[in-house]
Design brief:
heterodimer, A: alpha/beta, Rossmann fold, 2 domains, three-stranded parallel beta sheet, 11 helices, about 45% helix, B: mainly alpha, Fumarate Reductase Iron-sulfur Protein, Chain B, domain 2, elongated
């Protein structure tokens, strides 16, 4: 049903081309049904703005982040070195990720293993495209809607990028209603450090319930975030409170796309 | 003659106090060096800036304004009133009285500001005590605070209360003797706070001299005891905060080190020309351990962090795992590292070197704590002296996974999936692009 056309690095290489950007989709963006929608929204935005990019497709692999945070440095470095080999073989210079975890490993941890790229999180790219006028949001597409933003740890505290995703929302003419704990005080969604892949320890409640409660106290229409893991966790939190009819959990890319398509 | 005896006793006490403290500092350095060497001397400008803003300026404290203001009063009191200690030492050694009084109006100003600060310290310390013992703030009453840590915190407050009270009472007696034109008590200093105490002091000069002298001795002996108490106390932060902030982790916080030992092995594995049966390049090289089982495997900076921790519990109060009722408390991780380091230190003191006691850091820190961390960096961001509990948690995870294969089963499954299909789930790598046509 989709008319999306996305080139792989291999296809472009056969044509003798190297795109300006590699879009690293990430495991969530490739396999998770909810996250795939974010991937597609972002790809549509890139295409609307005429950005020259390709993906690795079947040659993409896990960045190694969950392995590293879970203490498996071997597996992380194996993943990193083979990913670097693939990217270097295609002459990759600039990488975009929609996942703050891939973003962090590429930007901060791959250089020491021989992978030196300009690494961008999609919030940076989208912000730039709006500023350059390549993406033009409609006036007040989200009028009268309350939107709050949940900072992903690996983007915010981890890499100091608090303003980039907020500027994308501002670009979509959205006034963010902040949670009491935001930016450097933001509470984790509960997925990081490989928690996504295991059951929680003995506890009073799930972290995602704890965090979502703070967001829901603002009576938002939309909880925006910029990480597929956060999106899953907060969505679960919204379901926990039976609010899925009233509250949407959306990625900044989806919000921007809606504001443009209005 | 009696004066001379006083001077000798004072000098002996001073020498003993300072000498013993020097020995404790040396022991601290020895213990911190039990950790592995690790270079943190890059980006010097940022480091000095942090020392200025975060250590001296207490920038991170001001995220919570009420304790920040109270702490500021005690901190300024500590730094500024200690100028008075210089005078006390000179007076004590040479038998002078208020030797700096030649500074005239400036001396008056100094003494007046010491008095105001001493008063503020008493107010702050009292409020601190109320917060801990009457209001019972949650972060001061968590399981890891049971026993010594709770007592330690109160002892520090009592110490400061006694020191400041002695200082003000001494000044009041001095002022009263000055008013009586008692010999040796020349007009010197301005006493905006202790003047209020004049009426409750006795009228006869000999009692006043006795009070003035006793308070003088209590004040200085108290300071010397306090100095030597630091090593055993969370209060060590008053000194260690400065080097600790200098050597702290700088942003980006989410960046973790790539283990060099692992890198060597992975490179060998991926190198098609490597000889799999080759012996290690250096036969004498001790086979290193991956990750941390004991304090010896940690970085020295982790151990400095542990001695610096003042157990304020801000880290724990923002930890998402702790806030949702899990066992993990970043503060307790730091306290465990210090406790184990002290245990090792005692063995070294006794036997001259460390002998295996069959214990390790993992007798203090449980897997349940270690696996509850989301690596969100909230604790690191929150710490007023830039301690990094996360770095310790990750190193213990590395030991558990790479040396003991003791990860939770679901994580082992995740590892296997990444190894086999390049994703944490059991999806085929060939399906990575399916989203395009869905």
């Amino acid at each position: 049903m989709s008319e999306l056309q996305v080139k792989t690095m291999a296809e472009l290489a056969q044509e003798g081309k190297i795109p300006e950007y590699l879009y690293w989709v990430g495991c969530m963006g490739s396999y998770d049904d909810r996250a795939k929608k974010i991937t597609k929204a972002f790809v549509k935005l890139l295409q609307k703005a005429g950005v020259d990019f390709a993906v690795l497709g079947p040659e993409e692999s896990c960045s190694g982040d969950p392995a590293k945070r879970a203490g498996n440095e071997f597996l992380f470095q194996m993943q990193a070195m083979s990913n670097i080999e693939v990217m270097n073989a295609y002459g990759v210079k600039k990488v975009i990720t929609t996942c703050p975890h891939c973003f962090n490993t590429f930007k901060n941890e791959y250089p020491g293993l021989g992978g030196k790229y300009e690494v961008y999180h999609h919030s940076e790219i989208l912000k730039k495209l709006v500023e350059e006028g390549k993406l033009q949001p409609a006036d007040n597409p989200f009028e009268n809607q309350t939107v709050t933003f949940h900072d992903p740890c690996y983007l915010g505290r981890g890499n100091g990028m608090y303003d980039e995703p907020r500027n994308v929302l501002k670009g979509a003419r959205i006034q963010i209603k902040e949670m009491p704990n935001h930016k450097e005080n933001a509470v984790c969604c509960g997925a990081g450090g490989a928690q996504m892949f295991k059951e929680a320890e003995n506890q009073r409640e799930e972290i995602f319930v704890f965090r979502t409660r703070e967001a829901l106290e603002l009576n938002p229409d939309i909880i925006a975030t910029a990480c597929a893991f956060c999106n899953t966790m907060i969505t679960d939190g919204v379901k926990h409170y039976n609010k899925e009819k009233e509250v949407q959990v959306l990625d900044i890319a989806e919000i921007l796309l809606r504001s443009i398509e209005k | 003659m009696i004066h001379l005896l006083d001077n000798i006793i004072f000098t002996l006490l001073l020498g003993t106090g300072v000498g013993y403290f020097t020995w404790q500092v040396k022991k601290t350095i020895r213990n911190v060096k039990l950790g592995k060497p690790y270079d943190r001397t890059d980006r010097k400008n940022e480091r000095w800036k942090n020392v200025l803003l975060v250590a001296f300026g207490q920038k991170k404290m001001f995220k919570r304004p009420i304790p920040a203001l109270l702490h500021l009063a005690v901190y300024l009191g500590f730094i500024i009133i200690n100028i008075e200690v210089i005078e006390i030492i000179i007076d004590g050694v040479f038998g002078t009285h208020r030797v700096l009084k030649f500074a005239g109006p400036f001396y008056d100003f100094l003494i007046a500001s010491f008095e105001v600060l001493a008063f503020l310290v008493i107010v702050a310390v009292t409020l601190f005590w109320i917060r801990r013992n009457i209001i019972k703030l949650r972060r001061f009453n968590m399981p890891e605070m049971e026993g010594w840590p709770k007592k330690d915190a109160n002892y520090i407050l009592y110490f400061e209360f006694v020191l400041m009270t002695a200082f003000l009472t001494m000044n009041a007696a001095d002022k009263k003797l000055q008013l009586l034109n008692h010999p040796h008590y020349d007009q010197a200093g301005s006493f905006p706070v202790s003047s209020f105490l004049l009426n409750i002091l006795p009228e006869d000069p000999s009692s006043l001299v006795m009070i003035e002298r006793s308070m003088w001795w209590i004040h200085i002996i108290g300071i010397l005891i306090f100095l030597n108490y630091l090593y055993f106390s969370k209060h060590y932060h008053i000194l260690l905060a400065f080097p600790n902030v200098f050597y702290a982790k700088l942003p980006p916080l989410a960046k973790l080190d790539n283990l060099e030992s692992v890198k060597k092995e992975v490179e060998l594995m991926l190198d098609p020309n490597a000889d799999p049966y080759a012996s290690p390049p250096d036969e004498n090289e001790e086979p290193g351990r991956f990750g941390a089982k004991d304090i010896f495997d940690l970085k020295w900076i982790n151990l400095l962090n542990a001695y610096t921790c003042t157990e304020c519990g801000r880290c724990t109060s923002v930890c998402p795992a702790n806030q949702t009722g899990k066992l993990l408390s970043p503060r307790k991780i730091m306290m465990s590292v210090r406790d184990r380091t002290e245990e090792v230190s005692k063995i070294i003191d006794k036997k001259g070197k460390f002998e295996d006691d069959g214990k390790s850091l993992l007798d203090y820190i449980t897997p349940e704590e270690i696996w509850a961390c989301t690596t969100c960096n909230a604790c690191v961001e929150e710490c007023p002296v830039m301690i990094d509990p996360l770095d310790i948690i990750i190193q213990i995870r590395q030991y558990m996974v790479m040396e003991e294969s003791a990860a939770p089963a679901e994580l082992n499954l995740m590892f296997t999936n990444i190894e086999n299909n390049g994703a944490p789930w059991q999806y085929s790598q060939a399906d990575r692009l399916n989203w395009v046509n869905e």
